[in-house]
Amino acid sequence: MILELDCGNSFIKWRILDLYTDKISLEGVVSSNLELIENLVAIRWLSLVSCRLVSVRTSEETRKLIAILQETFGVTVSCAAPAQEMAGVRNGYKDFECLGLDRWLAILGGFKLASGACLVFDFGTAATADFIAEDGEHLGGFICPGVSLMRSQLRTYTRKIRYNDVAAKQVTACISPGRTTVEAVERGCTLMLRGFIVIQLELARSQWGDDFTVFLTGRDAYLASDAVPCARLVPDLVFVGLAIACPLL
């Protein structure tokens, strides 16, 4: 079995694949290394032969996680690394090593699935948009705070904004003007996210007309799906890219 990990800023997303079919056997999301190991050790039938991961955390944090995985499960861990070019895609950053690895893998995954020009949106702690031309040239992208980050900043710096995550989830199905603070904040953040999308779509159409594919991925992608009904919702797009960056020999 193969263990795949997407180590983001806030959470670690994990999944277990069958070695021969790539079928997902189990998956989950945790908030710490300890929680990850506890979850995996509790799977009695787990027999890992390989592990691959992508991490946007510090080098020290990533090294610690790799060491724990190797010690606990006795597997070799492959870690995605920056590249100037891979699988027909050319990194568009002036310093290719400065492009976030999660973005790079989502770009690789999007281009593979689209087989042509594409616009990749990833909605996690940050909201990102990346433009990939038909020939595989990454044209660059945009980054802004994601919904969770906008929400936490309002809660931190505005004294009278106080509500929990349960209340937040109950008010996002509608985008009419809020009549409570939680409605106003949550719907306002959602509208900012959708406005971000609309502008990127206009830029993409100015370059490619309608001949491009739109991908939505990340924890909060569902908040944007109504704004782009033609988009492909691929929650595990980073894992598609991870398989490209860290193939099993």
TrEMBL record:
Enzyme Commission numbers on file: 2.7.1.33
Q: Which UniProt keywords apply?
A: ATP-binding, Coenzyme A biosynthesis, Cytoplasm, Kinase, Metal-binding, Nucleotide-binding, Potassium, Transferase
State the pathway, as annotated in the record.
Cofactor biosynthesis; coenzyme A biosynthesis; CoA from (R)-pantothenate: step 1/5
Cofactor(s) recorded for this entry are: K(+); NH4(+)
Co-factor: note? A monovalent cation. Ammonium or potassium.
Pfam families for the chain: Pan_kinase
* Cell compartment(s), UniProt: Cytoplasm
Q: Which SUPFAM superfamilies match?
A: Actin-like ATPase domain
Q: Which reaction does it catalyse?
A: (R)-pantothenate + ATP = (R)-4'-phosphopantothenate + ADP + H(+)
Give one GO molecular function term.
Answer: pantothenate kinase activity
Q: Specify the domain of life of the species encoding this protein.
A: Bacteria
According to the record, the signal peptide region is: none
> Which residues are substrate-binding?
93, 100-103, 181
Residues of the active site are 102 (proton acceptor)
User: What residues bind ATP, as annotated?
Assistant: 6-13, 125
Protein residues bound to K(+)? 122
Which InterPro entries does this one have?
ATPase_NBD, Type_III_PanK
Q: Which NCBIfam families is this protein grouped with?
A: baf, PRK13322.1-4
Cross-referenced HAMAP family, in alphabetical order? Pantothen_kinase_3
Summarize the protein's role: Catalyzes the phosphorylation of pantothenate (Pan), the first step in CoA biosynthesis.
Q: Which family does it belong to?
A: Belongs to the type III pantothenate kinase family.
Q: How does it assemble?
A: Homodimer.
Protein name as catalogued: Type III pantothenate kinase
Lineage of the source organism? Bacteria, Pseudomonadati, Pseudomonadota, Gammaproteobacteria, Pseudomonadales
